User: Fold this.
Amino acid sequence: MQTAFTRGAPQQAAPMTTPFLVAHDITKAFGGAQALKGVSLDIAPGEIHGLVGANGAGKSTFIRILAGLNHPDAGRIEIDGQSQQIATPQRATELGMSFIHQELAFVPGMTVLQNIMLGVPKKSRFGLTDWRAIARDVAPIARRVGISAPLNASVKGLSTAEIWLINICRALVREARLIVMDEPTASLAASEAERLFAIVRDLSTSGVAVLYISHRLDEILNLCSRVSVFRDGRSVAELAGKGLNRAALVEAIVGGAIRDSQRTATTRPRGDVVMEASKLTRAPKVRGVSLKLHAGEVLGIGGLVGAGRTELARLLFGADRPDSGEMRLAGRPYQPASPAAAVRAGLGLIPEERRAEALFLSKSIAFNLGIANLDKIVHGRYLPLLNRRARTSMAGEMISSLSIKARNASTPVGRLSGGNQQKVAIGRWLQRKPKVLILDEPTRGVDIGARAEIHRLIRQQADSGMAVLVISSEPDELPDLCDRVLVMSEGRIVRELTGSAVSRKAIVEASYVDPQALMEDHLA
Amino acid sequence: MSDVAISARRLSPGTKAVLGIFARYGTIIGLLAMIVAFSILSPHAFPTVNNFTNVLNQASLAMIIAGGLTLAVVVGELDLSIGFAASLHGILITGLVVHDKLPIPLAVVIVIALGAVIGLVNGFIVTKVKVNSVIATLGVGTILTGLAFAYSAGVPIVAGVPEAFLQLSLGRWLFGIPNNIIVMILVLGGLWLLVERTPLGQEIQAVGGNAVAARLAGVNVDRIKILGFVISGMCAALTGILLASRLGSGTASAADSYLLTAFAAVFLGSATLRDGEFHVLGTLVGALIIAFGFNGLNIFGAPTFSQYVLQGAILIIAVGTASLGRSLAER
Assistant:
């Protein structure tokens, strides 16, 4: 029996047919930053086309352009051979494109049917939405994609996979001819992912094209007939047939002739283990992480965005509590109940989002530095008043030793540049001389000069015996800075790199390791 | 192209400076202008030591409760229970003194301690049970109103109020300054010192400025928020006590309207000197604007309704112009 779903074009799209989508030499800059320097890509009807690339390669920007959320500076987009301007998301829908983002779009309080019809024009009778007629139309589509819940049931309590199916169903109700899926399996269990793959293949057979974006190379290899690779805002490779394999993908993602930056980090003598974590777990982001951090070393944590690095830092700093696992600090059991407890125990954290999570923007530099050092700026034990002179002079010292560019200590931090703001965030902890300093993306959004200064500062601290943990997504930062790098993937540490093995390529390669496969290897 | 459009709307540095000054000093300029205007219009009744003392004396109770509220809003929360709490405190202290014949100092201590407990409850519900502070304190305030009616059985306590109790509020002390004013100066002075000049105050400001950052800088955010509520509760108790003493009676809803006055003062204060931040000195200025405004209207015999209209209008105009001036000056 042939249903509408299995009828249609064969999976291997013949190159003669007009591609559904052609994007040619798209460029896009945000402010000074060139996010896309020229990407081209074409998708045939019914093709499952893979898109891969490291963080910041330009995938998201490209998708936002297809979705009508950003507009290209230059380049051409054709749908069915017709040149098109995608001015709005509505236009993208009209052209037959549907987008399923990593954060699935749904309204928890509504029914399955209402969620399927979210933003879709609806049939009406006498000016009222005719839900019965809509349900009649939607029911067969819902059955095809395998939504098991009744259409009038609430989506509350449905699994992520089922919500995902609702999103697929919405795309089909809109008669989408291309569905863009961004990391569809990121929060799915293995069995759910299998079901998803089956649906993607079914879509393809019925003539719906899929642009499949994932960091999981095995999925890409499994599903896609052709894969485009983006790197640094360019489409650098298109792999298909025999040329499409894991090694070739990694090679293209990392860049063939990698100019591995000069490794300036000298391996310095490291001291005793200061901090230790064993089998630290907080589902779903951190799974069984064990690590040792030595005095006087800079330990890097590499991996993709979403690999669980920030979440790990929050566990170490007491901002979240682990489900299980143990930590030790200077040999003693360490279970921080709050960041305050972690600070007392001798930790400092410079969070990823400095404006939202680290700084008091309307307050002065002196205030921002003083807040973690109140014990040092009090008049005395019996006079619990603020010693403002001590605070100002402390701030003055920091301003000059970190060369923070500001008029004086009372300048509001919100007026400083990104690099100088970050120096204030770091300076707050340097004053305390913590045993362990954790920096999450320390140079994000910072200019080159400030970046070098921040790196010098970090090394200085390690030289003076501090244990430093640096999380970074910038490919060059960790090899530059760290003595040792641990690479995380999907909540697990998948590789440890030391000495000369620390390189941009090794880090990127390890970032794509599937921890599941790794564990099976161990068992075998 | 869009750059051009923006720069065309950009204001000259001079205009920006003037707007910036207005955003910061507008309320103070307004207060002074009001005093000058009333003095010119009513040179015999308004600008006298007697009248000024009187205005301050009247306003002291509102200033105390508003000072407490300032602490709650500085830590980033709202406390809507204060008016109802002050009413309960008023009726309770009258009962303790008149019916239970407790010594006045002991009764005062008990009532202020109760104020602290109410703040503790508010703080606990907000930080630990994680109920939005508007709902939490409105709920607690409503319960307190019920308790006040239960305690008084709906009947005001009027008879048998001892003279010594009346003297709490009506008495004068140093150089004949009314007690209310002295208490107000001590309370606001203490709160100012706490917020602006102690390490604890730095933590209080940090929590209000950015609670996430405060937590990650090692500040115990929940404890600071609870402290804000406790201080707010204690100040409400103090206002309740002084009001009962001034009225010579305890009534179940006597202090309810202080809630609105306190909020008006606190938000007027946020438009003073600092860009939209709540602070004790600002609250003082805000309370003075309201007090002198009412006094002027009284002197000119304006009807009661106009006082409410004035209070609402001043609040919106002051906070609105400050916020507009700020956003224009920063453009």
Notes: The CA atoms of residues 112 and 237 of chain B lie 5 Å apart.
